[in-house]
Structures are given as structure tokens and as C-alpha cells.
Write a structure and sequence with these properties.
There is one protein chain. The protein is α+β, with helices and mostly antiparallel strands and about 425 residues long. The protein has two domains: about 5-95, Beta Barrel (OB fold (Dihydrolipoamide Acetyltransferase, E2P)), CATH 2.40.50.140; about 115-415, BirA Bifunctional Protein, domain 2 (2-Layer Sandwich), CATH 3.30.930. Helix content is about 30%, strand content about 25%. It has helices spanning about 50, 55-60, 110-115, 115-120, 125-145, 185-195, 230-250, 255-260, 265-270, 280-290, 300-310, 365-370, 380-390, 400-410, and strands at about 15-25, 30-35, 40-50, 70-75, 85-95, 150, 155-160, 170-175, 175-180, 195-205, 220-225, 275-280, 315-320, 340-345, 350-360, 395-400. The strands form three sheets. It has an eight-stranded mixed beta sheet with strand order 6-10-11-16-15-14-13-12. It has a five-stranded mixed β-barrel with strand order 1-2-3-5-4. The longest helix has 23 residues, at about 125-145. The radius of gyration is 26 Å and the shape is elongated.
Length: about 425
């Protein structure tokens, strides 16, 4: 019976064949232990010389790292194994013999591993991170589909910026100027006016010359947008969504979290509702803690970490100053210096994973913001139309996938959370 490593539990004490690669091996004079992987998981194959004969045993002993094989054997239950099973091998067929595989079990520097990212992905740790990433994506679709959202795909090539910044990748679009999208949000607002509740999932690009462990040049965003919804209602959706995703990973990625040596007790506490602190109170708290920061300044990584350490689950920082937030955010009803927005800060020093707000729904106020931010009315005329023809209260947010993966996995750097990271000085492989 041909099967995969994750399915071997269905064939205990039965003979199976698995297509696999050799991740590692060790052997004594009479037994060889093969660490096998097939993309779905990892399992140990045990080759006993007395049971298989000289020829197969020598084949097993001489196998090189990352050689591809078909391995046949009996599935045995083994509570000591991470997966709960091992394979008593009685047959081997070599598909391709790998030679001088560059990533050996010894320690390698980060730059070396990044240069060999196409091979580094095969390692147990990187495999686990990619499986968690996949579960977050799967749970995202499940959550939004189950809650009445429609998936909409905004364009990647745009004629203007969503946030009015200069950190854009410029390209020529035939005779016009175009940019790689830094957010699909404005288009999602248009989609929400047509479909009610929508979400997108796609790549975004920021030409920021940043080298911090939290930044990528190309990253993926989940961006829901909701018509007839105010800021407070949006916060409930956000905390419900994040809770759902974290609990889905805890349920469906036990082996991966174990391989990552993740302290899951901290993730188990991630249940809605989440605590909230206003920007005003956050500034006061930071000053009391000895941070040099004044009202009107944005928070950096040390500030977010200090605030997060007060809580055992993600925390919303609400109502930031208008001058440090995007042009489309709705003013607070009783204050003209702050807007109806919130950033969700992950615990354990992982920083902002969500930014969200209620959007301006008044045509004249949006025109005023265009003028204040020097935005071209021609370029943004279509966005103004959303306020001219049946405007409604609406809110939305964006979750950065890679930061979320990093937090849930407990990685030190965001570069491990995407298959092929694009960093300030890295476009290879």
C-alpha cells in the first residue's frame, strides 16, 4: 500500500511504501536508523541487518543526505516517536542519490542558509513553520467564509498609493506610471459597497529601507472590509478572528509546535475579548516606565513591547493622533485630534499584527483630507465616488501574515515565516 507519513497511523502493523528523502541517518554495526521525510511529515525507518540481508542493509548504510527513495516496511506504533509511529524497513529503492548536500546537520550561518533557502525549506524547523503558515491561511478562509464574507482580489498594479506614502515600487504601465500595491484596502472598500462583507488575501510591497527583524519588502496581507459596521464592531471581528486562528493552530499543528519548541501555554490564553488601552493612556504608561516619548509620536518596537508585556494576550491600542495615521481614518466623534482606529499588538515582543480603523464616510471631509495630504483628486476620484453614491459607515483592518506566523511559531526573525523572503539586500533565490 502506497501512502504518506501523515497517513501511516491508518496502517499499523501493515506493509506500506512511502516516497521519501533521507533527512539524516545513524547506524551501528547491525542497525541503521533512517530519518525520513516526504513533505507531509517525518518518520524514523529502522533497518535491521538480520531481517533485510546484507545488500539492503549496505544500501541503507550508504544512503546520502537528501537522496530520494521508495522505502517499504511495516508500520509500528511507538510512543517515543514524535509522530507516534516508526517504520520497520524491509525494502529500499533508490530514486536519486544526492551528493555533497550543502546543508549538513552542523551549524550554518544565517547568510549561508538564506543563500540556500530553496534547500533550507526542507529542514524540520522550516517545514514546521510552513505548515503553521498554511494552517493560519486555511483557518482564515474558514473563519471568513463561515461568517458571511466574500473573497475579493484587489489589483497588485495600481495608479496611486493607499496610504499616501512615498515608499512605493514604481514601474511603467505602458505609457503611464504604476506602482506595486502596498495595500488592497481602498479597492476592498469599493467591494464592500457591492458585497457587504469582503476580505482579500494577497501580496503587498513596501519600499522601506528597513532591516529590522519585523520587516519584509514583500509580505502577505489579509484585509477584511465591512459595510454598515462601526469601529467597535470591527474590533470584535478582529479579536474573534485572531482567537480562531490561534486556536486552530493549537488544535491542528501540535507536532509542528512541538518541533519548534513553542511554549503553547501562552498561545492557549489567546481568547477573545482582548484588553484595550488608549493611545493617551499608553503614552502616560510609557513615560512612567522611563521611555522618552511625547504625545503625537508613533510607537516603535520598544514601546510596543513594553505595552504588550502588561498583558498575557494581544492588546488593542486605540485612538491614535490624526497626524500620524492615514488620510482615510474617521475622526473621533468628540475629539478632532484623534481617529477611530486601533493597532493590535501581539504578546512576547512581536509588535503590531493588525492595523484597522473606521473609514471616513463623509464626502466633504474626505475632500478636505485630500487637500491636507496633497492627494490628486483625479487619481482618487473613484474612491470619493464611494462617498457620493450611497455612503455608509464602514470599517476594516489588515493583518500581516508573516508577523502573525512569527508570533505563533515563536521565531526570532520574520524572514523564516515566508518561503522566499525579500529583504533590503536579498532578491535571491
Amino acid at each position: 500500500m502506497k501512502t504518506t507519513i501523515t497517513e501511516v497511523g491508518n496502517y499499523v502493523e501493515q506493509k506500506v511504501t512511502i516516497g521519501a528523502w533521507l533527512a539524516n541517518k545513524r547506524s551501528s554495526g547491525k542497525i541503521a536508523f533512517l530519518q525520513l521525510r516526504d513533505g507531509t511529515g517525518f518518520i524514523q525507518g529502522v533497518v535491521v541487518k538480520a531481517e533485510v540481508g546484507e545488500e539492503i542493509f549496505q544500501q541503507a548504510k550508504n544512503l546520502t543526505q537528501e537522496s530520494s527513495i521508495y522505502v517499504t516496511g511495516i508500520v509500528r506504533k511507538d510512543d517515543r516517536a514524535p509522530s507516534g509511529y516508526e517504520l520497520s524497513v524491509n525494502g529500499l529503492e533508490i530514486i536519486h542519490e544526492a551528493t555533497e548536500y550543502p546543508i549538513t546537520p552542523k551549524e550554518h550561518g544565517t547568510e549561508f542558509l538564506m543563500d540556500h533557502r530553496h534547500l533550507w525549506l526542507r529542514s524540520k524547523r522550516q517545514h514546521a513553520i510552513m505548515k503553521v503558515r498554511n494552517e493560519i491561511i486555511r483557518a482564515t478562509y474558514e473563519f471568513f467564509n463561515d461568517n458571511g464574507f466574500v473573497k475579493v482580489d484587489p489589483p497588485i498594479l495600481t495608479g496611486s498609493s493607499a496610504e499616501g506614502t512615498t515608499n512605493l515600487f514604481h514601474t511603467k504601465y505602458f505609457e503611464e506610471d504604476a506602482y506595486l500595491s502596498q495595500s488592497g484596502q481602498l479597492y476592498m472598500e469599493a467591494a464592500a459597497m457591492a458585497l457587504g462583507k469582503v476580505f482579500s488575501f494577497g501580496p503587498t510591497f513596501r519600499a522601506e529601507k528597513s532591516k529590522t527583524r519585523r520587516h519584509l519588502i514583500e509580505f502577505w496581507m489579509i484585509e477584511p472590509e465591512m459595510a454598515f459596521m462601526d469601529h467597535e464592531e470591527s474590533l470584535v471581528v478582529q479579536e474573534s478572528y485572531v482567537s480562531y486562528v490561534v486556536q486552530s493552530v493549537l488544535t491542528n499543528c501540535k507536532l509542528e509546535l512541538k518541533a519548534l519548541e513553542r511554549d503553547t501555554s501562552k498561545l492557549e490564553q489567546v481568547q477573545a475579548p482582548f484588553p484595550r488601552i488608549s493611545y493617551d493612556d499608553a503614552i502616560e504608561f510609557l513615560k512612567e516606565e522611563g521611555h522618552e516619548i511625547e504625545w503625537g509620536e508613533d510607537f516603535g518596537a520598544p514601546h510596543e513591547t513594553a505595552i504588550a508585556e502588561k498583558y498575557d494576550k494581544p492588546v488593542f491600542i486605540t485612538n491614535y493622533p490624526k497626524d500620524i495615521k492615514a488620510f482615510y481614518m474617521k475622526p473621533h466623534p468628540t475629539r478632532d485630534d484623534v481617529v477611530l482606529c486601533a493597532d493590535l499588538i501581539a504578546p512576547e515582543g512581536y509588535g503590531e499584527i493588525i492595523g484597522g480603523s473606521q473609514r471616513i464616510d463623509d464626502e466633504e471631509l474626505l475632500k478636505q483630507r485630500y487637500a491636507e495630504h496633497n492627494l490628486s483628486e483625479d487619481a482618487y476620484r473613484w474612491y470619493l465616488d464611494l462617498r457620493k453614491y450611497g455612503s455608509v459607515p464602514h470599517s476594516g483592518f489588515g493583518l500581516g501574515l508573516e508577523r502573525t506566523v512569527g508570533w505563533i511559531c515563536g521565531t526570532e526573525h520574520v524572514r523564516e515565516t515566508i518561503p522566499f523572503p525579500r529583504l533590503l539586500n536579498r532578491l535571491y533565490p
